[in-house]
Design a protein that fits this description.
This protein is α+β, with helices and mostly antiparallel strands. It has a single domain, classed as Carbonic Anhydrase II (Roll), CATH 3.10.200.10. Helices cover 26% and strands 24% of the residues. The strands form two sheets. Strands 2, 3, 4, 5, 6, 7, 10, 11, 12, 13, 14, 15 and 16 form a 13-stranded mixed beta sheet that branches. Strands 1-8-9 form a three-stranded mixed beta sheet, with no helix packed on it. The structure holds 2-acetamido-2-deoxy-beta-D-glucopyranose (2 copies) and zinc ion. One 2-acetamido-2-deoxy-beta-D-glucopyranose binds next to loops. It comes from Anopheles darlingi (Mosquito).
Length: 312
């Protein structure tokens, strides 16, 4: 009996060992650490498409570099519902909340179809910059196209994945919803792979900016290895507030080598031969035409009257 138990234990350990080394092999990449002055000098050098790709993310966003876009409204379905059985995971590269409710989707806004929310996670130090300015935090809401069964399948296809980026700026007041994430993150902060149920309800909608009528749109990649170029990006120029204390609470989350994950953003990548679109609800040409129509009608009426009179 004892021997059998021991054999069993050895087997369990062996399997655990295989699984563990398997996952570390995939995860053998890291963010370069900032030097003592806070500046990051090293390139990421993650290899593969991360280095050779020409449609990589993040990029430097600016209205000056963008072309005008006009899409239908971006629609968030069931974003106001709290995420069911929400779990927070320390991935060793970020903290992530998974969603497996396929009714939480986005569509419209020029997206080629409907996309299901898979997970949301954070980068401290924003990945995208706007007019050269880096924000304190960036939220990524990662979705896959309903044309594919899973995110894994969709990652291999152009426009298979849609990511919404939300930037956060530092303000005096803490952000209650970020507070929910951080209160749970404390319990899993030192052990990558550890999971904890969120300590309060969290609806994805509560993390979005109020005004979503304006956004940047471009085609790019995942910002972590293997940097697959399958992502249609939407980043709002309107940022959301959180406190400085909250920003610092992200920085004590530990990575897979047991160090504090001080920064987890990738450096901006070249735009190359891509268009950056700035979309908003532009004043419609037809609106201004109908606006002037009311003043044009009496004039036309008068002309008609004059025509009729001249005929008589
Ligand atoms: C969603 O995930 C939870 C755990 O987070 C699990 O209990 C539940 O069965 C899952 N639902 C579906 C539809 O996969
Ligand atoms: C939303 O933001 C856009 C771009 O900054 C602006 O043009 C628009 O007026 C804003 N809408 C509202 C309702 O504030
Ligand atoms: Zn991300």
């Amino acid at each position: 009996m004892i021997i059998r138990k021991m054999k069993c234990l050895v087997l369990v350990q062996l399997i655990a060992c295989i699984l563990f080394t398997g996952s570390t092999a995939d995860d053998e990449w890291h963010y370069p650490s900032p030097d003592p002055t806070g500046v990051i000098n090293e390139p990421e050098a993650w290899g593969g498409q991360c280095d050779s790709g020409r449609r990589q993310s993040p990029i430097a966003l600016s209205r000056a570099a963008a072309v005008r876009g006009e899409f239908g409204p971006l629609i968030f379905n069931n974003y106001k519902l709290p995420i069911r059985q929400a779990l927070l995971t320390n991935t060793g590269h970020s903290v992530q909340v998974n969603n497996n409710d396929t009714s939480v989707t986005i569509q419209g806004g020029g997206l080629p179809g409907r996309y299901v929310l898979d997970q949301l996670h954070f980068h401290w130090g924003s990945e995208h910059t706007i007019d050269g300015v880096r924000y304190a935090l960036e939220l990524h809401l990662v979705h896959h196209s309903t044309l594919y069964p899973t995110l894994n399948d969709a990652v291999a296809v152009k426009n298979g994945v849609a990511v919404i980026g939300v930037l956060f700026h530092v303000a005096a007041q803490p952000n209650m919803h970020i507070g929910t994430i951080l209160e749970t993150a404390i319990d899993i902060r030192s052990v990558p792979g550890q999971v904890a149920p969120l300590k309060a309800k969290l609806a994805p909608n509560s993390l979005l900016p109020v005004n979503r009528t304006a956004y940047f749109r471009y085609e790019g990649s995942l910002t972590t290895p293997a940097c697959a170029e399958s992502v249609i990006w939407t980043v709002f120029p309107e940022s959301v507030a959180l406190s400085l204390d909250q920003v610092d609470q992200f920085k004590v989350i530990h990575d897979q080598s047991g160090h504090e994950l001080v920064n987890n953003y990738r450096s901006v990548q070249p735009l190359n031969a891509r268009s950056l679109v700035y979309a908003r609800e532009w004043e419609r040409a037809s609106d201004s035409a109908s606006g002037s129509a009311s003043t044009a009608f009496p004039v036309m009426g008068l002309l008609l009257v004059l025509l009729v009179i001249s005929k008589v």
